[in-house]
Amino acid sequence: MPDNTDDAQWPASTETPSAASGQTYEEHAAADRLHVDDPGQLIVAVPAMVGFVPQRSLVVAVLRDAPNPGHSPIIDAVLRFDLETDGRSRRGLAAAYAQAVAQICAAEGASEVLAVIVDDRAREPRRTRRHSATVTGPSAALVAEFARRLAQQEVFLEGAWAVQAIEKDQRWWSLLEANRRGVLSDPAASMVTVAHVLNGRPIRSDRSELTDLVTPDHELAQQVTALLDSAHALAHERYATAVRRGDPDEYHRRALELVLWHIADTDTGAALTAPACAELAAALRDRTVRDSLFALAVGEHAAAAENLWAALTRALPGSDRADAATLLAYSAYIRGDGPLAGIALQAALDADPTHSMAILLQTALRTGMRPDTLRRLAYSGLGIAADLGTDLGTDPTSGAAPDHTAPS
């Protein structure tokens, strides 16, 4: 995808409501089945499906057939594209975005999509006496070109609507059917929103709340930088001691336990100090330790671990920042949060453009690889930890801080 189109969301095998042609769709992840019977309900569900309230965006829902014959299609993935042109023509944007959507559709075996434009600059067209009249305006022109480009790759736009903002009482209108329009209900009362919140999936007010999660804390990073050399030297000494004792896995195990303890400690609200950040950075430089930690993304402590990865991303410089950001990106990716995964991966690659795992994950995200496919990395991490004698399925919040003194 182009650089500003890395916001992709997978409902993770759920069936998310949509509203093409007045059809009803279902989400089996919720306690109750969710029904949507008009475009307005689709639009108010967009923040829940994307993870934040989009602005100046094109949101595209990729449809696929329901697993049971006779059931309505389901939304398989949701993508958000930035409508800021950055000097590009709208035709150029439509072509780039159609290519990205077609690539996702090809990976998913999908051929139909829906689109919603959210743009405060958009203006609702005047009503016309001719029901079949062509919808005009910049948004309609963009969507028309987008649909034309998609059709060239045998992907078809089944519905498209526009709204200035996703807020209660805002008016929406169709970009394909003249005179079809309506008024939004309260997005907070949407059943899709309620289901996502009850499932512990936050809905942020805007995309900046995601970028804030990885924005460097320059003061803390400066303090950590001053301690990194000594922390790395101490870790090297501990590893050398373990090797001399004929048990290098002893170092890996203790370093892994250190990270687990810090995850538990910060989850209780404890502040992450500069010395702790430096010690954790040294631990994450060990590939065995780092690879095993991918396993936490599929466990019950995924949220606590993700909070630590975010804190370290803000606190660490250079390649150490890239290591933490990649762990954050993987955790977000696995739970279907493509926007956060994309932002974290960009932070990782800005810090270290050669980071192999970040490059791999970014390629997977941009080509539409499903989160479930990447779970094998987590299972591999579980195996690595098990070989070290550490069960990552146990509760890391129990017990005192591990003893990390060098073996005598």
Give a description of the structure.
- The protein has 408 residues and is α+β, with helices and mostly antiparallel strands.
- The chain folds into 2 domains: 7-206, no CATH class; 212-387, no CATH class.
- Helix content is 47%, strand content 10%.
- It has 14 helices and 7 strands.
- The chain has helices at residues 39-50, 90-108, 138-151, 191-198, 208-212, 218-244, 248-267, 274-284, 287-293, 302-315, 318-334, 338-351, 356-366, 375-387; strands at 7-9, 57-64, 74-82, 112-118, 156-163, 171-174, 181-183.
- Strands 1-3-2-4-5-6-7 form a 7-stranded mixed sheet, sandwiched between helices.
- Helix 3 (138-151) links the parallel strand 4 (112-118) and strand 5.
- It starts with 6 loop residues before the first strand and ends in a 21-residue tail after the last helix.
